[in-house]
Write a structure and sequence with these properties.
The protein has 326 residues and is α/β, with parallel strands linked by helices. The chain folds into two domains: 209 residues, Aspartate Aminotransferase, domain 2; 93 residues, Aspartate Aminotransferase, domain 1. It is 43% helix and 17% strand. It has 14 helices and eleven strands. The strands form two sheets. Strands 1-7-6-5-4-2-3 form a seven-stranded mixed β-sheet, with helices on both faces. A four-stranded antiparallel β-sheet has the order 8-9-11-10. The longest helix has 25 residues. The protein binds pyridoxal-5'-phosphate. Pyridoxal-5'-phosphate binds next to helix 4.
């Protein structure tokens, strides 16, 4: 299936122009002063946060690999259904792990509250959640920070599809126990560029020079996103694309939630999850959706199907096939 970049003439043209400008044979890449990194500066301007608190890396994946593995954490706390790299990285570093149950965020918070924590614990949670797209409200995060004694990683890979893109950023400016991860993979539908950033006031020794080295991202990707963040027309083309995706997501949600046999969770991400009590119905619905792009089945604590939002025709076809199956 063609990507948004391939389908959109304006984006194709912009990419071609950008490629020409940057194909100049300059392969030097000296970042002698990491804080002068042009992308750190462009992001700082874009989100209006001091560059001192911004770190650029090769996608959120790099931040997970490096930050979760640090020996300053005594225990890694994860929701029992979470983006798998958190668990894998914790296992690799032989970390003590604790899993908190909760299909809905409210239940997660209630269960988490019962656990005694200490200042060297690290809680990692995606919001909107990798599992079902549910987003923590600011009050919920403040509530967590009140009873939880450790550091919180808020993985905002999908935040650009929510209605609260910038609300949580000041949390990490007000509180050095909060680390926010952001990615251009979902925001600009450009995961191949392997670029993301972290915002935190937390001081971790050698973070800028060795833990998150300033040479993680290629100069080509750096230039690409610096140009993109400075181009109002392209930024608004993406706003439109995301609004369109959000619209089709809500169309799908509104139709699916009317079906009694299904549990659908209101998502703030670019996907919707259907959650099942038994595998049988999950398999039946998954089969009915076969041949459509962007349908994934999981059996991770509970059986669920993730539907990645596409165009209106896609949403309507998903609804038609599910209604026919039930
Ligand atoms: C919750 C979450 N965090 C991080 C990532 C990885 O992001 P990146 O491409 O920036 O490494 C993903 C990718 O699927 C994700 O779902």
């Amino acid at each position: 299936m063609a990507s948004v970049w391939q389908n959109n003439k304006q984006l194709r043209k912009w990419e071609g122009k950008h490629f020409k400008e940057n194909s100049n044979g300059d392969f030097n890449y000296n970042l002698a002063y990491p804080l002068e990194d042009p992308l750190v500066n462009a992001i700082s301007k874009y989100i209006n946060i001091d560059k001192e608190y911004i770190y650029v890396g090769a996608g959120i994946s790099q931040f997970i690999n490096t930050i979760v593995g640090l020996n300053i954490w005594e225990r890694i706390i994860l929701p029992d259904i979470e983006f798998a790299l958190y668990k894998r990285t914790s296992e690799l570093h032989e970390k003590e792990m604790l899993f908190v149950k909760g299909i809905h965020l409210n239940d997660f918070i209630k269960n988490f509250q019962k656990i005694k924590t200490n200042k060297n614990d690290l809680l990692c949670i995606s919001s909107p959640r990798w599992f079902n797209g549910e987003q923590l409200s600011k009050n919920q995060i403040l509530e967590i920070l009140d009873f939880f004694k450790g550091t919180l990683i808020l993985d905002e890979a999908y935040v650009d599809y929510s209605n609260h893109e910038n609300e949580m950023l000041d949390l990490c400016i007000d509180n050095d126990r909060v680390i926010i991860f952001r990615s251009f993979s979902k925001k600009f539908l450009a995961s191949g560029h392997r670029t993301g950033y972290m915002v935190t006031k937390k001081q971790i020794k050698n973070m800028r020079n060795t833990i998150i080295p300033p040479h993680s991202v290629t100069s080509y990707s750096e230039n690409f996103f610096v140009s993109l963040l400075n181009d109002k027309k392209i930024l608004s083309a993406f706003d439109e694309t995301r609004s369109y995706i959000k619209c089709n997501r809500d169309l799908l949600y509104n139709s699916l939630q009317e079906i009694n046999e299904l549990e659908v969770i209101k998502s703030d991400a670019n996907f919707i999850s259907l959650i099942f009590e038994n595998e049988e119905l999950c398999n039946k619905i998954y089969e009915s959706l076969s041949g459509l792009a962007g349908i994934q089945k999981f059996n991770d604590i509970v059986p669920f199907i993730k539907i990645w939002i596409n165009n209106e025709r896609f949403s309507k076809e998903v609804i038609r096939r599910i209604k026919e199956t039930i």
